[in-house]
Records
---
Amino acid sequence: MTAPVRTLLWCAGVALAAAIVAYPLYANGYYLALGISVLYFTILATAWAMFSGPTRYISLATVAFFGLGAYTAAVLGETMPWPVVLLAAAGVGALTAVITGLSTLRLSGIYFVIFSFGLAELIRQLVIWYEVNIHKSVGRYLFSAVTQDILYWQLLGLAALVFLVGWLLGRSRYGLALRAIGADETAASHSGIDATRVKLGVFVLSATFIAMTGAVMAPRWTYIDPAIAFNPTISFQVVIMALLGGAGSLFGPVLGVIPLVLLFEVLTATLPNHFSIVLGIVFVLIVMVLPNGVIGLFGAGRSRVPAERRAAASARTMDAPLLGVEGVSKSFSGLRAVDDVSFTVAPGEIIGIIGPNGSGKTTLLNTLSGALRPSSGTIRLGGTVLNGLRAHQIARLGLARTFQLVRVMPDMTVAENVAAARLFSTSGGSDATGSELLDLVGLGAMHEAPAGDLTYIDQKRLELARALALQPRLVLLDEWLAGLNPSELEAGIALIAKLRDRGLTIIMVEHVMDAIRALCGHCIVMNAGSVIARGAPDEVLTDPKVVAAYLGGEDA
Ligand code: ADP
Ligand code: MG
């Protein structure tokens, strides 16, 4: 971009900003009302997308928070100074979001959508009950001195604040963490991201802005009753607007707000009785034609990867076993998938776990990494008992893993996948940068490729790089070499050997016996949940018990 063009763009930007700020000075009643609608939906849609965009938890609870904000203003508006009213509305929104978020953010997909819709209805009914039985009237009057001009400027200030907070959030590690959660919550947790806390934090932030918008808008109605304040259409309109513009980026939603506010304006004037039908049709069309929103057409919407974070190296204890597994069992309603398994892993060692399909190998790894809670037994990593810790906590202690069925965050870039595992890492170990790790696994040229576009083998490589990015002390590989062709297998074995030479400790579940022989000093054979043999690979592979187990299993 040349200097004159840039100056021109700057001038245009400043002129536009001035025109927006001065709008009430030259716009008359109708156009000012339209401007107010555009602004308040901009705030609602941007705040909605702050949480729902990256996580893809489609919330229909917008109007619950909006209505609570409006009601707070109606109750307190005539007795308290306006800034206090706004803060109170923010507080009510945040508190409600904490309570509901804690109980529901474990739900995912359609369950969350239904719950969020139910939540709005529940809150509306509670408010009606309170008003009828305690306050003894359904509606409330709110006479305030707030003119349309002042209302507009308040909304403008709030909109600026939402964009500022959204921008800061997108640049912070929480922004990337949220997208990682949206892409693959399990992989994100095993990369050290506390999914529950991150989701709750941003849900509360979003709800706070929505509640404040409700409070700011309350004086516009003069008379408020639950049907106005908790009108479910608002929730749907917000979703449609954000999706039309593009919920994945900060400025996407506003691109959907402007045309749809105008469209809805025309519709309420011309087709008041068919408004809901048209709303539904618009919704379906948007999802079909523009799945990534208007902004997706420009290929925009990717936030930048935060700078690499280097974690402080913590001292390692070299003599004690790094991992101690004592009598660990895991049952699934009667089926003992892992039965009283004990072993230790010394620092720098590669342990192999082999056994026929269904013998409990993956389940054992799941109990070690916190994906499952062991039914009994104790697991220690470097002296810390892991029992009862959650996946992200175990990951942060330096236990990384890959998955038997490969899990990458498909719509994030290769570099972002790796960066996601560095966000909260606090353990010691290698402090190689993300790009060094990608070079190491052979993905050096793919930094900007979406992970979902990689071949199966490259996705496996990426998973390993992501595991290493956690700066782990121990890596669990679940059939990482499965499905590789002979030359890829050779490269894969060489790579694992290189990691061992760097001092990494590895537990590998594997069917490829050549790899077990080449890499493992010691291996454990499982069958039907129990350890049936242990020792050097050559010894155990000729053990008659092991041979019988393999011949008896489905997988030779
Ligand atoms: P492997 O990795 O050795 O092939 P798994 O650990 O995946 O074996 O499975 C061991 C046994 O536990 C199998 O019988 C499997 O069906 C059962 N299993 C694994 N996960 C679950 C689960 N989440 N719920 C119920 N049964 C399970
Ligand atoms: Mg398995």
---
Amino acid sequence: MTRERDPLNDMTPKTVAVVGGTFDPVHSGHVELARQLRDRYNFDLVVLVVAHDPWMKATRALASPGDRLEMVRLATVSDRAVVVSDVDIRRGGVTYSGDTVSDLALIYPEAELSFVVGSDLEGELTSWERTDELFSRAGIVVVNRPGTPLPRGGSGAPRTGPPLTSPGGVEAKMTYLTIDGLEVSSTQIRDLLSRGVPVGELVPDLVVGYIARNKLYGVS
Ligand code: ATP
């Protein structure tokens, strides 16, 4: 049997958007973010990277890395230009975004990497660990989240901003993108699930099924 050539699989991505996250659990806001990075802002590839042990969320118990990875895989299974990466899980230990982009730079050596964060995280970026590695290997793309609009009030076309400087003196190229976002967070989803409230469209169906089968987040 012959297979048709798949142009996407033959392509070496030149622009890669990296969305690191805990994805505890992945929700439709993450999926929509990935779709718009690809379809509206034309990144060749969007990589969702599931953190092993995110240093920022050390205060509460998380679903296992394997469960979080599988849920992201299920959420993106129909999107060929969105892939899930386990580089942080395979490295193990505490996850730092500087290590994430260093690993991805080895996997996509010809690509320009952009590390994507929601506008809720922009203000704390320079206090992150290992920002020298992060800023030297990737540009930073800030997307609006409902409730935390872009500081420049951006709409439509990408905007650049003044570079952010890491404590070690490395400057990050800053770009601001407007996403027609969904007002949803993993915190909200965990809360709804633990109270037995249906999450409806806020979580992809395959992920809802996985959560139910594996009794995650207090679902009985
Ligand atoms: P939590 O509520 O547990 O803090 P979260 O919903 O922020 O989780 P993360 O896995 O921490 O989810 O998010 C990964 C990345 O996706 C972050 O950069 C975050 O800002 C961004 N993000 C999360 N939800 C949305 C959304 N609804 N719209 C746009 N970006 C989002």
